[in-house]
Each structure stands twice: as C-alpha cells, then as structure tokens.
C-alpha cells in the first residue's frame, strides 16, 4: 500500500465519498454535498421518497480507542446542523417537507480502505 498519510481533509472527503455511494445504493436522490451557509455546513442532503434527509458524516481512521466517529456529534453540533438545515429548507422552499437527521459513521484503515460504515437513520 501507499505510504501517503491521509490528512483530516482527505479522510473527511473519502468518508463522504463512501457515504455518498452508500446512499446512492439505497436509491436516495442526492440534492447537495457540503452545502454551506452562515450557520455551518451540511455534509450531504438527500431525498428518500418525499422525505428530506440531512446527513452528517463522521470518519475516523485506524483505532477506535477514542470512541466511534458518531460519538463526536455533541448537542452543540446537532443544533448547528438543525439551524443550517432550516436555512437550506427556507432557501430551497422545502419548509413543507418532513425532515430526518441521519448520521453515517465510517471507520477506515490508515490507508483509507473502508472497514465499517454504520448508517444511523433519525440519529437526532
């Protein structure tokens, strides 16, 4: 394997790519990736039928001795994602849509190969 050290940014992008492929395999329609506004960023936004899904992706490489990736989503982060989702739904006239907040937790090896992907629907 390569000796290239994955930066946090590279690892995050790789995790989002794994999450995107997972959601596409579930036939979700992906509306946006890395959508930003003044309140923050949403990793992935998709539709499952008529349901608008806001997806937070967390990725770690190597050991999970510091906990699973999804454990890093605290109450403050959840609030920021909710606020940002509100801006998205307002800007795109989707306020009438039912929202669901999912988390996709990804663990890779040190080279970036996928070890586990845990999709947690309705995580918060």
From TrEMBL:
UniProt xrefs under Gene3D superfamilies: 3.40.1350.10
Taxonomic superkingdom: Bacteria
Cited SUPFAM superfamilies: Restriction endonuclease-like
Family that this chain belongs to: Belongs to the UPF0102 family.
Protein name: UPF0102 protein NV381_06405
Organism of origin: Paenibacillus radicis (ex Xue et al. 2023)
């Amino acid at each position: 394997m390569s000796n290239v050290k994955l930066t946090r940014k590279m690892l995050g992008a790789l995790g989002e790519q794994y999450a995107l492929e997972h959601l596409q395999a579930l036939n979700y329609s992906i509306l946006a990736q890395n959508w930003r506004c003044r309140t923050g960023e949403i990793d992935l936004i998709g539709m499952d039928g008529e349901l608008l899904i806001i997806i937070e992706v967390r990725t770690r490489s190597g050991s999970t001795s510091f906990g699973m990736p999804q454990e890093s989503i605290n109450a403050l982060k959840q609030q920021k994602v909710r606020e940002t989702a509100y801006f998205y739904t307002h800007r795109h006239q989707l306020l009438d849509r039912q929202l669901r907040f999912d988390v996709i937790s990804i663990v890779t090896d040190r080279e970036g190969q996928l070890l586990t992907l845990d999709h947690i629907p309705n995580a918060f």
